Amino acid sequence: MDSQEHRCETDDSCMEGKARRNKLFAAIAVLLAAWFVLYHYLAAFSRFLTYDVLRLDAGSHLGSAVEFFLYDTPKVMMLLTLVVFGVGMLRSFITPELTRKILAGRRESAGNVLAALLGVVTPFCSCSAVPLFIGFVTAGIPLGVTFSFLISAPMVNEIALALLFGLLGWKVAALYFITGVAIAVVAGWVIGRLKLENHVEEWVREMQAQQVAMPDTSMSWEERIEFGVEAVRDIVGRVWKFVVLGILAGAAIHGFVPENFMAGIMGKSAWWSVPLSVVIGIPMYTNAAGMIPVVEALLGKGAALGTVLAFMMSVIALSFPEMVILRKVLKPRLIGTFIGVVGMGILLVGYLFNIVI
Question: Could you write out the DSSP letters of every residue in 105-167?
Fold first, then answer.
């Protein structure tokens, strides 16, 4: 090690690389400090814009809605950017291809748990459902294990958890994580027990497993940071419209829906609210980032936590557009089984939280 350090000290290009890396880390430290300062003053700034600059009446419906929008928009976008950057750097170590190799050959029960946990930290969206599913099946991963990953990855992803933590606190984020992973594990195990491999489209099963490109462990820190920056450009660039639409919907609910109005529709006393919220959520299409502001507003207006979480889970995990994409590789019976098993898990979570909390 000493000889390597000595060689680097006498190598101009090596010394220049070290200097660039140190400057890069210093710049990141400054940006993080600025991020935390801005985040701390967002509430005060949103009130200043709403009531001093725009001169809206304090306590009015419009003023309350505008303040919610001006506060939540930068807050959610800042959280989203920070989380996606961090996960983007993580992707330089843990890629979907590495995940596929880790899961291959695992026993089904242990594989369900591992697949669900890997789904939390592995970037995944509807557009990658088909290639990932094909890769998993052709690599010999059991069908139930594959479904544990496919359920967990979009529903219990890092963006959902970070935004829930930032907007609603660690208890709600922890409950969502535990129940989401539990649904993924149990649903995947049940699907595996049903032996539905014949209901995967023939062309998928006939494909030969391809060689997996492993992540380049020799990437420099500069390259990993650039990987994170590219992730922000890609993911935030694709989801920001959903985020803004979700915040607009949340602002309308926050400002114009009367206090406790939602209690009669999505409250604990309405036994039918949980299945209704799941049915309403399935045709919708948005992502976790777009759903969190709506969840925040619904809870603020008296909706029960279990009902709201069931609604959010159904939108993210059972959306109709997702089913259309998966139809390319799954036969209708398997898709119906997937919807039924996951839907039952979501219903149980909704009722459980409404009874306990």
Answer: T--HHHHHHHHHHHHHHS---GGGHHHHHHHHHHTT--HHHHHHHHHHHHHS-HHHHHHHHHH
3-state secondary structure 327-346: CCCECHHHHHHHHHHHHHHH
pTM comes to 0.66
User: pLDDT, tens digit, for every residue of 200-238?
Assistant: 877 766 664 444 444 455 677 788 888 888 878 877 887
3-state secondary structure (DSSP) of residue 200: strand
- Rounded CA-CA distance 187/132 in Å is 18
pLDDT digits (tens, 9 = 90+) for 126-155: 555 555 666 677 666 788 888 888 888 777
Cα atoms in the Cβ-side hemisphere of radius 13 Å centred on 104: 17
**What phi, psi does 131 have (nearest 5°)?**
-65, -35
Dihedral of alpha carbons 277, 283, 287, 291, sign: negative
Helix, coil or strand: residue 60: coil
> Of 235, 288, 250, which is closest to residue 91 (Cα–Cα)?
235
Written as six digits, the tokens of 40 are 């701390």
